[in-house]
Amino acid sequence: MTQTEQYRTQICQWLLADESRLQALEICEKLFAQLGIKDWCIAAGFVRDMVWDKLHQLPNSALNDIDVIYYCQQDISPERDRWLEQALAQLLNQELAQELVQSPSNTLTKTLLRESTCNLPFSVKNQARMHIRNGDAPYASCTDAMSYWPELQTGVGVKLELACSLDDCQQTQAHVSIIHAFDLARLFDFSITHNPKRKRELFTQRVNTKGWLERYSKLAIST
Question: 66-70 and 122-126: which strand pairing?
């Protein structure tokens, strides 16, 4: 097994053991499968922070913003993204309601349903449009779009894919796919690395405002 394969395996194991992240992946897989959109993932802090938390033996960071990105040239309007955010929230509520119906002893149904959207705050962006805001040439895919992000460690995404079981096509098996614009080793080497495609000032601003060096004491700016 190569080093990259080891990193992939470790990320998958951590994700599958994280109930909130796994739920977010399952909901996104349902929606994008219904829409026939194959190029999508949950990226940025969803993966980056999880890895840094584990490397520093810290509790999981709160999912304050779940960055869902996809690539679809058919409709690049911001309204489409807002609709997708609402659809993901509805799927989350439906899934939670079903779980609570199956567990009638839970008396917090209404409270949980009301707070469920806040627990998984989806932010959806079509990368077929984002080059306009960023002043770049058109992106060709989600991976291409991530190659422009300010830090190399942020350009990592994950998605859940369902495939038929080899023994029974009536059953499906979940598989975590990892999409990365840069070497995965960057995410594990305790560094924060500036992407030369973006201005250094933006990189420095993000490092300061995100508080990464304060939360993750072993990290260092890569020169």
Answer: parallel
